[in-house]
């Protein structure tokens, strides 16, 4: 393992990072992380990464297969299961579902918005979401709210379903994708989130994405 191994990484910044095998050959790119929420507001455990491989197929890479996370590179080991990724009951997509979620600070009940989430490697070798970068609600029409990073336990409301969840931070992680790649990302999101993201795209970008979708997917939007 390289001396540049990182033991804490913010996941929105990890999106798009190249993934390599032990020989240095490219495998794909990180698109999301899969986690499971735990009881009593304990930090969620990261189960693995969603990696986009050639032909826009997204596959699941268990976090135990990740041997190194460095600046600009993720290294994995072992055989890659090429079965198309799909979430299972109890699993959440960290970026796809939790970015832009409205939550509250436990101590003050102040409403805030999730901008990023930091996972950290603990002493037992588990990756946990321990930090949440949040933005406070703006007090003016044009002013952006103050931002800060808090511990997961200091926040509440992650498990609640938000009616009209924002998409600003999620879209920023997808801004460099080609229309066909963005269409593939939308396909993997839950229907509610898919509609929210589509509404957040400008008309030209949305039109390009719709052209890359099949008829049934377009009708669903």
Written overview of the protein:
The chain is an alpha+beta fold and 221 residues long. Helices cover 23% and strands 34% of the residues. The strands form two sheets. Strands 2, 3, 4, 5, 6, 7 and 8 form a seven-stranded mixed β-sheet that branches. Helix 4 (179-188) packs across helix 6. It is globular and about 50 Å long.
Strand content: 25-35%
Total helix count? 7
Rg, rounded, reads 18 Å
SSE run: EHEEEEEEEHEEEEEHHHHH
Query: Which regions contain 5 or more consecutive residues with pLDDT less than 50?
Result: none
Please name the fourth-level CATH homologous superfamily of the domain at 8-93: PRC-barrel domain
Mean pLDDT: 90
Helix content: 10-25%
The CATH architecture classification of the domain at 8-93 is Roll
CATH topology (fold) name of the domain at 8-93: SH3 type barrels
Q: Mind summarizing the main beta sheet?
A: 7 strands, mixed
Tell me the distance between the termini: 44 Å
Instruction: Based on Cα principal axes, name the global outline.
Output: globular
**Number of E strands:** 13
Structural class: alpha+beta
- CATH class of the domain at 8-93, anyone? Mainly Beta
């Amino acid at each position: 393992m390289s001396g540049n191994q990182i033991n804490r990484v913010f996941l929105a910044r990890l999106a798009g990072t190249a993934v390599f095998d032990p020989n240095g050959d490219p495998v794909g790119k990180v698109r999301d992380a899969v986690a499971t929420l735990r009881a009593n507001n304990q930090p969620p455990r990261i189960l693995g990464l969603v990696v986009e491989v050639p032909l826009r197929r997204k596959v699941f890479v268990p976090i135990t297969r990740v041997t190194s996370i460095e600046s600009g590179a993720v290294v994995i080991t072992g055989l890659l299961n090429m079965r198309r990724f799909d979430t299972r009951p109890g699993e959440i997509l960290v970026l796809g579902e939790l970015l832009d979620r409205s939550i509250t600070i436990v101590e003050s009940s102040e409403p805030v918005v999730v901008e990023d989430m930091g996972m950290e490697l603990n002493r037992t070798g588990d990756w946990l979401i321990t930090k949440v970068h949040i933005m406070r609600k703006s007090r003016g029409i044009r002013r952006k709210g103050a931002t800060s990073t808090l511990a997961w336990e200091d926040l509440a409301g992650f498990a609640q379903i938000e009616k009209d969840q924002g998409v600003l931070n999620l879209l920023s992680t997808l801004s460099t994708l080609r229309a066909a790649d963005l269409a593939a990302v939308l396909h993997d999101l839950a229907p509610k989130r898919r509609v929210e993201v589509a509404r957040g795209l400008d008309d030209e970008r949305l039109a390009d994405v719709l052209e890359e979708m099949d008829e049934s997917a377009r009708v669903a939007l």
